[in-house]
Amino acid sequence: MTDTTKTWPHHELGRKVSNWGRWGPDDEIGTLNYVTDAKRVAAAQLVRSGRAFDLGLPFDKDGPFKDGGFRVNPQHIMTLLPSDTNTPDNLISADDMVVMGLQAATQWDSLAHIGYDGFFYNNVPAAAVNSFVGAARNSFAKSVKNLITRGVLLDIAALKGVDRLESSYEITAQDLSDAEERQGVRVESGDVLLLRTGWVAWFHEGDRKNFLGKEPGPGLDAVPWLHTREIAALATDNHACEVMPSAVEGVGVPFHQVVIRDMGLLVGEMFDFEELATDCAQDGVWEFLFNGTGLKVTGSVGSPITPIALK
Amino acid sequence: MTDTTKTWPHHELGRKVSNWGRWGPDDEIGTLNYVTDAKRVAAAQLVRSGRAFDLGLPFDKDGPFKDGGFRVNPQHIMTLLPSDTNTPDNLISADDMVVMGLQAATQWDSLAHIGYDGFFYNNVPAAAVNSFVGAARNSFAKSVKNLITRGVLLDIAALKGVDRLESSYEITAQDLSDAEERQGVRVESGDVLLLRTGWVAWFHEGDRKNFLGKEPGPGLDAVPWLHTREIAALATDNHACEVMPSAVEGVGVPFHQVVIRDMGLLVGEMFDFEELATDCAQDGVWEFLFNGTGLKVTGSVGSPITPIALK
Amino acid sequence: MTDTTKTWPHHELGRKVSNWGRWGPDDEIGTLNYVTDAKRVAAAQLVRSGRAFDLGLPFDKDGPFKDGGFRVNPQHIMTLLPSDTNTPDNLISADDMVVMGLQAATQWDSLAHIGYDGFFYNNVPAAAVNSFVGAARNSFAKSVKNLITRGVLLDIAALKGVDRLESSYEITAQDLSDAEERQGVRVESGDVLLLRTGWVAWFHEGDRKNFLGKEPGPGLDAVPWLHTREIAALATDNHACEVMPSAVEGVGVPFHQVVIRDMGLLVGEMFDFEELATDCAQDGVWEFLFNGTGLKVTGSVGSPITPIALK
Amino acid sequence: MTDTTKTWPHHELGRKVSNWGRWGPDDEIGTLNYVTDAKRVAAAQLVRSGRAFDLGLPFDKDGPFKDGGFRVNPQHIMTLLPSDTNTPDNLISADDMVVMGLQAATQWDSLAHIGYDGFFYNNVPAAAVNSFVGAARNSFAKSVKNLITRGVLLDIAALKGVDRLESSYEITAQDLSDAEERQGVRVESGDVLLLRTGWVAWFHEGDRKNFLGKEPGPGLDAVPWLHTREIAALATDNHACEVMPSAVEGVGVPFHQVVIRDMGLLVGEMFDFEELATDCAQDGVWEFLFNGTGLKVTGSVGSPITPIALK
Predict the structure, then answer these.
(1) How is residue A257 annotated by DSSP?
(2) The model's pTM
(3) In order of start, what are the domains of chain B with their CATH numbers?
């Protein structure tokens, strides 16, 4: 089914922005290498008022996924109830478990999530991701220490003067520069860049069909900009951090292919920037300490997170 | 089975250190209220070198639990493999899921985990924790914003001149004060207090039986000290943050009962302080920015975490 | 919340049809005791043409349950794919798992599923069903050997001249006798009685809302009839084998309470009798060898099944 | 890694006993086609005393698998406890779920479980088994109607005069014929053939290491015999129905490859014949009605079962 004679434009772009080998042949965290010790010190200095903002959606059975689809919402199950205990001193106790996709609700895509032509980021062959060990390389588990850094929010919806971007709107490099200028902030090396599309409102309104539908997102045009700025990770408030349908005929996720596989960029999805964006618009401060550590699940391809911004 | 005529010493102690009502009748986060905006600002200032320390155990099937017990190790399962994709542009993709106890490996006990006499923290009745909604009150999900604060590590094993404390050793108030003096640090309101027992070495040595066995931990004697100092949360590097067996004849977890149910204190278990303790011993700095957000699972009683300390 | 002064009519009925103690104080299988060796021999003789009828719904994510409800549809997950294997002789292999409620789709309710006043069938206290061991008594696991016996299908929908019974229709003792007479068959000791309501058509039509809605089913009036006839188990083709809403004001499942807890009768739900009923109507034979063994899950309260009728 | 120049002896054997196309190009149940209506009628006649024998191991966390391996034991979890209910009439209720491999404990391997050279039984390509739909072809779900038929037990351990066969003993065609002669029974078209090795005793003795170790089983020599006799399915009382290690150097499961992929034969594993064998030795009757329906899980590769023999 693969047309090996065809040259795909996104794969050509991928070669131009490739970071393969940049941090050595064994590197598994890609652009998270931009998060240096000095970067962390500077990021911590951004905590000025001490206010905390929760950027995560809850994990539960009322999550974003619909009945019968490939991904399902988290199932939270009690495994011990107060009635199970019977001790002389009247102890009561409770325990619980969860059955969940690691990309259910707010989450990171690791560098083992998307590739093409048989390889993931940094020359990792497809077979390194298998049922026996999960992601033997590029696992999310390797990334946990570098996900606390400076965060910058660019409000693309506000730039365009709307509450939420329209369906299938493609965010361009120009949009990113315009948002910087409008907000008076500059994206720098080692930042986690947060792009607000306003799309998460569909979820809050209970409209899963639209939330999972033809969403706006960053397109291939934005890739060189993201590469040059040396961002550490990218996250959006919609379900896939990708224009849907994509501008490349017949190809579902060209942006993912290039940024995850070639650049080695972690991609965050289903974040919620509504409260944070309101605050930033009020005080004019669009930078903060971003905390998005996630879970160190061995061999994991993705990670659920509850990210917190501290201003 | 309950002896209602008997007065339990730990329940009497509980009344003395109770925080019920202190932050209002609807409060669900207890001592995390000590984490104020000002506290967060001060905590962020502690990031001086930018070094990051991972304080978590990995989540996988080789975790701390043993075959056939009540709790089981996390099961990580691939739900999409590179071979599943077949597109013209040669995309490969992977997805995964996890089936896990929310208290598997490194984790927080929420204020819905332990109670007695029919109530959890702040007058929440046992029936508020049920199979329909999980923890309708005191859920861990309420706590996520307040788990980034100053952390202080007290190395009790080093205080006692050993690599790991002996079985069933009870950490006292005097030990805590002695460790402060020895290290030149003071535990303050709003801190997350980390107690190193060295016990996690059993896990690293592959000895689950001892790791889950008669562990050292804080006893009832330490409770008033913890209460007075107004710590926000407490965590240890063993499996239960409790002396085992406890000093109260026939009672399994008296410390948990008092600090979680009466004080409203989050308790962390199965942390790993080995690398951090070595570093702190070298530079003499035992305070840092502690990040232990966890996951916002609706109705959850506990939360897996990968805590990170930034110095 | 319990009104202890009130005498409930279904509980009074329960006392009249009680089988507690009938098969000894340790009995855990209730009316399945009617399935004797002689009964099995006679039942096997009913296989005359050798045709097999599958009476089960499939177990999958497109099952009867809806998004966000208490019960969820089965999740079938591949845990090994052909691409995972790489041996000199080119082996390919696949493995899979399931996460499912034991009462997802076609299933048996065991005698540990429903009780009242603190007890399950045969004086088993509520606490015998707990998180540590599941159902310490009355588990479905005890029943597996007695679920192959004579089956008799009574087509109540056909009796009433409709494709499916109307919402909330209550099947009475008279209906059962009338159906016997119409079909020329008699329900006997040790039979599994199958009642066709036609309701499963809602599921086949993809209308989960109606399938899970106000269904027809056997009412309290039918209980003495079922008791006298000494049936071994009862199953229907709707989701709960109960008139919904029930005829007892404010009480959800009075029929379940009496037949499961007092009589000790296994109840089957979400069976599919469409193909079998058509065949029986054609040849006038409404009896067959019924095979509904289920799974021997230790401590289980229910069991998924794929029942097969052999004529 | 594949040596394409090499001709494998088991693959040559596979071509000789191949049933591909025998029941048409769309057939998905292979030798289960031998279970005809007439066969079912004859099998039912074998029920003479009405005694039932449970041939299954329980499904629970104390099952055959060991900590940290690829397959894990079933996890049974209560999802509703008596304490969760609070109605005026004092209802109590319980519900539960299971997380389990479909090949945990007693189970069938379907025709989508094992193949080679890129194909499963009847020319089904490897890609037909994927994460999206499970087994799109050859799923176990197709087989449920044909798993009630005549069963014949051949006691190979008794033939060899031992309680359990020695490690790695290979059962030959001669052994099968000798056992027939010794027992006075003949395996016929459409039978489920049960081979007793006595190996299950390791499991009953709590020795999982030996149970999962170098087991005895049928070898390639027996394949033509099984093919000629037209058995419908084959099951053993050890963990893999295969000599371990196999007689083919460097190849793990040559017997599985040939019988499942080429013959289209369902293979059952981890059955328990101890009680049945004792009974058969006493009355000299080694044939019975075998019931091994399993669960109709859509797209499933295997199925847990609790098989029942009726004599």
Answers:
(1) I
(2) 0.96
(3) 9-70+101-310 (3.50.30.50)
